[in-house]
Write a structure and sequence with these properties.
By secondary structure, the chain is mainly α. 71% of the residues lie in helices and 0% in strands. The protein has one helix and no strands. The longest helix has 52 residues, at 21-72. The protein is rod-shaped and about 120 Å long. The termini are far apart.
Length: 73
Amino acid sequence: MKTVAHTQPAIASPKSTTTGGSVDTSIGIFILTFPIAVIASVLLYKRYRVVQKRRQREILERIWKLNHQEKTI
């Protein structure tokens, strides 16, 4: 009897392929910088709102002061 030897094709399996160090580094940098960026955004927005409220309050105080001076004259 003849036996036939089966050979497997020389195709790389997905497990043996590497993603490369640059992709892993990029993902690591993203994981570190994303939370920092979110926290910085929230803090900067809060500071922006404080400044806007302060400006609005100053404008209203000037308007009230003008109205008060007009009423007393």
